[in-house]
Amino acid sequence: MGFSQALSGLNAASSNLNVVSNNIANSQTVGFKSSTTQFADVYASSRVGLGVQVAGVVQNFTSGNLETTDRSLDLAISGSGFFRFEQAGQVVYSRNGQLTLTPEGYLQNAQGARLLGSNGAIQIPADGLQAQPTTEFDATLNLDSGSDVITAAFDATDENTYSYANTATVFDSLGNSHELTLYFTKTGTNEWAVNAALDGAVSASAAQALEFTTSGLLDGYTPTSFDFAMTNGAADISFELDLTGSTQFGNDFEVSSLDQDGYTAGSLVGFTIEENGNVVGNYSNEQSLVVGQIQLATFRSPEGLQPVGDNAWVETAASGQPLVGTAGNGQFGSLESGVVEASNVDLTKELVNLIIAQRNFQANAQSVSTQSEVLEQAVNLGR
């Protein structure tokens, strides 16, 4: 009987050596998770044990250290969650975010598996950003309450018929830029009129009326629109001028902010990945646009995931179904770009474990040798 106990010890020790050696071998593997061998004793009907068996190999999903690479396509998850990849028609999960960009614009790992987002595989569009005409124009400014009231009819060519003017750039549907001039005229106590001209041509739209309270704040203000006919093949420009937040204090005329939503056409010059997984395309016209969103997955019992190699796992009944969501939201960790998650193997600890596993193997081998000697002596007694 002693042989079976010793042999079971050798088999268990050998399995433990394999696990420890695998941990050491992957101490520099990005996103690798170490494993631990669990043992269980074996008993029959007698009180004498029948040896040992490997009860299981448990993975340790604690996070590894984040190491800076300064490579924009290197991603790491700070916290819980797994990247989702599509590989050979199957969804696999990984903590390794070392990505490359394919000629078709897909983000993929070294195995060619494509990174998944909210709408399938993440793909960076190669198309440029189409021009957008100005439809909204927001401005915040202060009109000097000490300005003189002007009673003459407005004439853009006569600076004596308006109090102040300010220029800005707007865009038509073809992406052409145009100079917009806003004219502010004080027409009465706490009352102003705003006219607009595009490239020197005054809009036929009615002037926008502004009324202020005695405290210098807008009173019952409603934004209105200005329309301009275009002759360059673009659609006519029509935008709403919103001066909400403007004041009439006893200070000089001052423009605090100008903002409009139009822009010229642009080509993709790069992209960035934000903490929440948004993939943002950056264009030559200084615009940015969310072109995709990386989503993460978590599991009720990640230890139940089945490793399939290449730093990847697949779900099993033991792991439960994945919960998919947005990075940085709830239980999902946030994404960091330009860093990778190092292996969580504690190399010093594993080297100690290797020595212990080796001694365990040697002890069981010695037990086999001793059992052999005992058996040989028993045979000799019977001669």
UniProtKB/TrEMBL annotation:
Gene Ontology terms describing biological process: bacterial-type flagellum-dependent swarming motility
GO cellular component, one term: bacterial-type flagellum basal body
Flagellar hook protein FlgE/F/G-like D1 domain location: 76-128
Record carries keyword Nucleus: no
Gene3D superfamilies: Flagellar hook protein FlgE
Domain Flagellar basal-body/hook protein C-terminal: 337-381
Keyword NAD part of the UniProt annotation: no
Entry coiled-coil feature ranges: none
Domain of life: Bacteria
One Pfam family of this chain: LlgE_F_G_D1
Keywords: Bacterial flagellum, Cell projection, Cilium, Flagellum
Main localization (coarse): other
Known function: A flexible structure which links the flagellar filament to the drive apparatus in the basal body.
Family: Belongs to the flagella basal body rod proteins family.
Name listed for the protein in its UniProt record: Flagellar hook protein FlgE
Source species: Azotobacter vinelandii (strain DJ / ATCC BAA-1303)
